[in-house]
Amino acid sequence: MQNTNIFLIGPMGAGKTTMGRQLAKKLHLDFYDSDKVIEERTGATIPLIFELEGEDGFRQREQAVIDELTQKQNLVLATGGGAILREDNRQHLKTRGTVIYLHSDVARLMERIRHDKNRPLLQTPDPEAKLREIMAQREPLYRETAHITINTGDVSIRAAIQAILDRLKNHQQQTRT
Fold first, then answer.
1. I need a surface site. Which of 40, 84, 147, 151 has the fewest CB within 10 A?
2. Torsion sign (Cα): 111, 116, 119, 124
3. What CATH number is attached to the domain comprising 61?
């Protein structure tokens, strides 16, 4: 399989960071998590950035990091769940690598993230209702941006990674012909 850029998109809790790390290792590519890069560069957590700068301030930082990272070669990038909200991000992702949407249903996502306090958008009285609202807004953007969609809901990480590898191979063969 030729080395290329692989960009993982999807909602919080879909497995972008966990699978991205393992995928990068298997493919001998560099791994980046856009949220971690932002935290390292600012010295602040994502929730603190949201608190101090609001969502728009965070999205500006995210856009700059995604623009920079998508210009590198031979990497796997796990994006934040809302990265696809900005048109520039969607274009950079779609044109600079293979975009994989890690899809999962809201119930499964809630199981994975219900105790995670680093999800500023879910710090509400009804996090599940908020997640449903977020997914209703973002789902069409994930689907529009992705070259490949993988359901991570009821499969093991190993099975999901194997599905990604299989689909990547098919996608690369199709884009070469």
1. 40
2. positive
3. 3.40.50.300
